[in-house]
Each structure stands twice: as structure tokens, then as C-alpha cells.
Design a protein that fits this description.
Structural class of chain B: alpha/beta
Order of helices and strands of chain B: EEEHEEHHHEHEHEEH
Strand order of the largest sheet of chain A: 5-6-7-3-8-9
Oligomer: heterodimer
Radius of gyration of chain A: 18 Å
Largest sheet of chain B: 6 strands, mixed
Largest interface: A-B, 39 and 38 residues
Strand order of the largest sheet of chain B: 5-6-7-3-8-9
Number of helices of chain B: 7
Strand content of chain B: 15-25%
Strand content of chain A: 25-35%
Shape of chain A: globular
Structural class of chain A: alpha/beta
Distance between the termini of chain A: 52 Å
């Protein structure tokens, strides 16, 4: 039995000009959502967690595994010509990656002829089938249409044994979320476990505030749970 | 009025429609032709047949503000202040006036603290805000926002919408996948496979009733209205 992976940030600090990021936290297996305003330091925290950025102070400790992957939101992250080559460039199970991405039959297609949703699906499939212990997804749904978002949700939902950290402003198309975190002016706070913490979420999105005014609280933050809560609106 | 008559380009079928002054949202699946349509309206792309007239003028004769999803590709200057000032400097507005306007815009958008920063090193959301301010500052005839909402939090989206309403820009056209963002528009067009699948005016009270659903822009209009009435947001 391998130990369940845990990543611990102790007294982590990083300074960028007048901005300081501070984080004391422990992330275990499950799906974590990291929210916060523009410029609050979410992406920087993602970079520290995935080892791209070194903290100026404090340390990042690992228990268990330590294979890490970060998906940042660039328009394209491609390095090869065809679907098959690109899937292979991730050094995972090529066939499984292509299957998971729903691109079977398109193995020899030029990557640039795929839609943006298809390219993102290939990336996510490679990341999520790649047996990483920590996966940081920075705005995984940016630029994707409704159908592609539903696909991303489904894929992430089936991966709760790793540590998955989703950084997003789009709180209306999320998969199942276990823990809610917020960056507030550079300081990382754990708001709690979903759905319990939804009742005391000060910066909740408009839908949650609207529902709360009617005494309705969703059972979670996934798209499906929000839709179910909307069905409880009287009238 | 923007009159699009049988305009055709790329994968778009010939499109004919009228766009009224105000805010227009364009939505539709990836690959439906949203960006191509925006490029046509901005005059970046010439229709292979048909025509587009903006208040009687050719798009190429109009001033256009454009913010894309990844504005770091279009950044011209190193310092945020200079990026914001550039559209005014290019049209020979005096230094004093330019300075006043840059500072007022930055204050209204809540980005004064960014003015002395380098464009490089801004977060994704901050970059969008600066690009947005630079696109608006010279009050273009048309402002086009191509999926800029991906990097902005809800508060900033709401803030930008108030800002647009007060900006005096005659036509604002934005593309988005999110129904909660479409709700701020006056009109909405849904493109599918290069064709107009739906065109709705939200200000028309005789329009079809909208169900309580996360996919219905009408539901989001209700959410916003009631939160505002309740003194929230």
C-alpha cells in the first residue's frame, strides 16, 4: 500500500514587489477549489505547489508520492504535429489518453486542425491518466463551450484519489469539490469542507447569495448540485 | 445601427442582421464562428461578399477597441501607464489631458495601483483589466471583447459592465460561453456552425419567458436584479 499523498506548506512566503503571498496549509487527496480575486496570488500559489516557483521563506513538504503536474491557461501547449505524437509526448499510456480524450479515430490529425475544446481535452486526458499525485489546474475551462465543460467536469470527478487543485473564477461549471480555499490579498485561507462552509462563505458568488436569501443551500459546488438547488426555488 | 447584409467570410454562412446601439452578446459552441464574426465587424477581416455598414460607414473607417482572451500578445509598451496612454498619444491628445484621462480611467477601474508596474509580471486578470482600459480610453466607435471573461472574477465583470454603460461607447460586442455574463447584454446572438441559430432582445418584455435554469440568461437577469434590490453586490 502506498501512502496517500499529502503536500504541506509551512510558513511559505514569497515577495513580488509590494505583493506578499503567505500560505500555511495541508492538501490531501480530493478535489480542492482555490478562489480569490484577480491578482490575489492564486496562480503564484499554483506555481509554488507544483515546484515551478521557490518560496522566499518557509518550506513545501511531501508525504507519499511527488509526481506533479500543472496545467496553466495558455491558448495552446503543444509540441508536436499529430494527436498521436502529442499524446506520446506525455510519456503515459498513449492509447488510453486518446480514448479518454474522445479522439479515437483522429490519431493522425494535425493538432492545429482540432478545435480548442479538443486540444484541451487531449491535454487534460494526458494529465489525468498520467498517474500524477498532485495536479494543479489553473482555469481548466477557460475558452471552452458548454459541452466541453461538461466533459472536463466528468473527467475530473473520476479522479478523487489524487490531490487535485482547481484554480478558477468560473464557479458555475465545477466538478464535485471537497474543500474550499480562498486567497485574500496574498493570504491563503481554508474556508472549510463543502457543503458545510457554503453557509459562511462571505465572498460567495451571486447565485449562492441569491439562493441563501431564500434559505436554499446547495449540497455542493458542482454544476449538477447547483442545478438541483435552483430547482428548489419556490414558484 | 450596424447593418450586416449577406456578409460571408471563412466558415461563416452569409449573415444578414441588424445590430442596435448598446451591448450585444455573442455565444455558441467552439468553432461556431464567433471570432470570425467579431473580426468581420472590426474590419480586420473583409467579407468575401456582402457588406457591413456601421452607422453608414465601412468598419475600416471606424475606430475599434479590441480585447482578446490573451492580451499579452498585443502589448506594445513596458509600463502599464504607457500602455494606457498610448491610444491617446497616438491621436496627439495633449500630455496634460492624457495624464488626467489615464489617472481617471485607472481610478474608475480600480487599477491605480498598477500604473507604475511593468506589463510583464501582471496576473492574467490584471492584464485583461489594463488591456480593457487601453481599448476604452479613446472611446472607440465599437468595443469588442472576445472571451475576456475567462480571467476575471465576478465582481470585476460586474464592475466592467457598469463602466461600459457609462463609457459612451456606442456599440459593445462581446463573446462568451457563460449565460451569467450574457445577462448583462441588451441583445444576444447564438451562432451555430457559421449560422445565426437565435437572436434575442432581452429588453423586449413580450419575449418568451425564461425558466429558472443556470443556462438561461433571463434567470441570471433575475438573480442580479433581486440581489441589487436587496442591497447586495
Amino acid at each position: 500500500m502506498t501512502q496517500a499523498p499529502v503536500i504541506r506548506l509551512s510558513g511559505v512566503a514569497i515577495k513580488k514587489g509590494s505583493f506578499t503571498l503567505l500560505a500555511d496549509a495541508e492538501f490531501g487527496p480530493g478535489i480542492h477549489l482555490l478562489t480569490g480575486r484577480v491578482g490575489s496570488g492564486k496562480t503564484t500559489l499554483g506555481e509554488i505547489l507544483s515546484g515551478i516557483a521557490e518560496p522566499d521563506d518557509g518550506n513545501v513538504q511531501w508525504n507519499g508520492g511527488r509526481r506533479v503536474m500543472l496545467l496553466q491557461d495558455a491558448s495552446y501547449h503543444i509540441s508536436t504535429m499529430t494527436v498521436k505524437e502529442e499524446a506520446g509526448s506525455w510519456h503515459g499510456d498513449v492509447e488510453r489518453t486518446i480514448q479518454t480524450a474522445g479522439l479515437a479515430g483522429k490519431e493522425h490529425k494535425d493538432l492545429l486542425s482540432l478545435s480548442r475544446g479538443e486540444v484541451r481535452r487531449l491535454e487534460l486526458a494526458a494529465i489525468l491518466t498520467g498517474q500524477f499525485d498532485l495536479i494543479v489546474l489553473d482555469e481548466p475551462c477557460a475558452g471552452l463551450d458548454e459541452e466541453a465543460r461538461a466533459w472536463v467536469r466528468q473527467l475530473i470527478n473520476s479522479h478523487a484519489h489524487e490531490i487535485i487543485i482547481i484554480i478558477s473564477h468560473d464557479l458555475m461549471s465545477l466538478p464535485h469539490i471537497d474543500q474550499l480555499w480562498e486567497m485574500d490579498n496574498g493570504v491563503l485561507n481554508l474556508l472549510g469542507t463543502v457543503p458545510g462552509c457554503l453557509r459562511s462563505w462571505k465572498r460567495a458568488p451571486s447565485l449562492i447569495r441569491y439562493l441563501a436569501a431564500m434559505g436554499i443551500y446547495p449540497d455542493g459546488l458542482s454544476r449538477e448540485e447547483l442545478e438541483e438547488a435552483v430547482c428548489r426555488i419556490p414558484g | 445601427m450596424i447593418e450586416v447584409s449577406s456578409a460571408r467570410a471563412g466558415t461563416l454562412s452569409p449573415l444578414s442582421l441588424t445590430i442596435h446601439p448598446g451591448i450585444l452578446a455573442i455565444t455558441g459552441p467552439n468553432g461556431a464562428g464567433k471570432t470570425t464574426f467579431l473580426r468581420l465587424l472590426s474590419g480586420i477581416l473583409q467579407p468575401t461578399c456582402g457588406s457591413i455598414k456601421i452607422d453608414g460607414k465601412d468598419p475600416a473607417e471606424c475606430t475599434i477597441g479590441w480585447v482578446g482572451e490573451y492580451p499579452d500578445r498585443n502589448v506594445l509598451f513596458t509600463r502599464v501607464y504607457d500602455e494606457l496612454a498610448s491610444p491617446l498619444r497616438f491621436t496627439r491628445v495633449s500630455c496634460t489631458k492624457t495624464d488626467q484621462k489615464v489617472r481617471r480611467f485607472a481610478k474608475d477601474l480600480g487599477i491605480t495601483c498598477l500604473l507604475d508596474r511593468n506589463m510583464q509580471g501582471l496576473s492574467g486578470g490584471e492584464l485583461i483589466l489594463v488591456a480593457f482600459a487601453a481599448a476604452c480610453i479613446a472611446v472607440p466607435d465599437i468595443l469588442i471583447l472576445d472571451e475576456t471573461d475567462s480571467h476575471l472574477d465576478e465582481l470585476f465583470c460586474d464592475h466592467i459592465e457598469d463602466f461600459i454603460r457609462r463609457s459612451g461607447i456606442r456599440y459593445v460586442i462581446f463573446s462568451t460561453h457563460r449565460p451569467e455574463r450574457m445577462a448583462v447584454a441588451d441583445e444576444m446572438i447564438r451562432l451555430e456552425k457559421g449560422k445565426i441559430a437565435e437572436q434575442i432582445s432581452f429588453n423586449d418584455p413580450s419575449g418568451p419567458p425564461q425558466p429558472d435554469s443556470l443556462s438561461a440568461p433571463g434567470f441570471w437577469r433575475k438573480v442580479m436584479r433581486e440581489l441589487k434590490a436587496g442591497g447586495d453586490g
